[in-house]
Design a protein that fits this description.
8 helices; about 325 residues; nine-stranded mixed sheet; alpha+beta; five-stranded antiparallel sheet
Length: about 325
């Protein structure tokens, strides 16, 4: 769990049982596994989600007696245990990509006398042997719905998955499988989960790919960088759907600016920056480079969001087929441009 400085602090059940109990029963996400990057940085690889978020995900699945569920991402086995208690362990199949986590979850579940089908494998592939399922329930986020999930959901069944974009990790997609093999549904305004491993993009930080000789296009903007990368999750969610592959990070106290918003795309081929000088709040300096003018795209997308009445996340939906993902506002007849 995090300490007062925002740093991760080890919480050991054997050494600090009281702290462990406080953490276990707190409504906060808990990191359960780290990976060490090539530069030595430790990054979270798996977590136990906030109990309130887990509950909302289960409520959104609208489970009823007799349903069979495919869970993507076993983790500690907590959500798997809840599914097993609700539907019976025989009705639950869970897939975990990390062998160590799968083994730990199996032990945790056995201590509760629960024995659902628990597999170690790529969750994006599901588990065809037990298909079709009434529900596919993901405890990780996706940027595109795997075709296997569509194929393994019965017609009229549902897929519930947290959503992620390069810009913003937020929202949960509730899909209903159609007779034509596709699915359609709306987003709900909750859910911030780790991205499924197969869809993670490894890109260099754009500041590190600046090259000598680049001549970025300079300009100014009246749109505050905090309007698109601040605390407004509705705006950020819209940008995630309408400016594909674009992401951002903040810099403070640089030589060039008091505060700088960096933008880049997943290919690391285009970048942009927006500078705040510490005083002027009406105009901000911009720079853009590459085949995409990323800040221009963001400005256009934000203007569309404002003109649409600043819609909240639950006004958006998506139609999914094996080949396409088409986001829309209010109904499928109004696709996002």
């Amino acid at each position: 769990m995090r300490d007062e400085d925002g740093e991760y602090r080890l919480c050991d059940r054997d050494r600090s049982p009281d702290d462990w109990l406080v953490a276990a029963y707190s409504d906060v996400p808990l990191i359960t596994r780290f990976v060490t990057e090539s530069d030595g940085t430790r990054s979270p690889a798996s977590s136990a989600s906030m109990p309130s978020t887990v509950l909302r995900l289960l409520e959104g699945a609208r489970l009823t007696d007799g349903m069979r569920v495919l869970e993507i991402g076993t983790g500690t086995g907590y959500n798997t245990a809840l599914l097993s208690a609700r539907l019976g362990a025989d009705a639950v199949t869970s897939v975990e990509i990390d062998a160590a986590l799968a083994a730990r979850a199996r032990t945790n579940l056995a201590q509760l006398s629960l024995a659902p089908t628990l597999l170690c494998g790529d969750g994006a592939e599901g588990h065809a042997s037990d298909a079709p399922y009434d529900r596919v329930l993901a405890t990780c986020s996706v940027r595109s719905v795997p075709v296997a999930w569509l194929d393994q959901t019965r017609t009229g069944g549902g897929i519930v998955t947290p959503w992620d974009s390069s810009w913003c990790c937020y929202g949960t997609l509730h899909l209903v499988k159609r007779e034509d093999g596709g699915a359609v549904g709306r987003f709900a305004a909750y859910g911030s989960y780790m991205l499924i491993s197969g869809q993670r993009t490894d890109v260099e930080l754009h500041r590190d790919v600046l090259r000598d000789g680049q001549r970025p296009e300079k300009g100014t903007t009246g749109l505050s960088p905090w309007a698109v990368a601040g605390t407004d999750l509705d705006a950020q969610f819209h940008l995630g759907l309408t400016v594909p592959g674009a992401w951002y990070s903040w810099d403070t106290g640089t030589e060039e600016a008091h505060t700088r918003l960096w933008l880049a795309d997943d290919s690391a081929g285009s970048w942009a920056s927006v500078d705040y000088d510490g005083e002027q709040t009406a105009t901000f300096r911009t720079a853009q480079h590459g085949p995409r003018r990323l800040w221009d795209e963001v400005v256009t997308a934000h203007r569309q969001w404002v003109l649409a009445g600043r819609p909240t996340v639950d006004r958006y939906g998506m139609t999914v087929t094996a080949d396409t993902h088409r986001a829309w506002l209010d109904d499928p007849g109004h696709p996002l441009g």
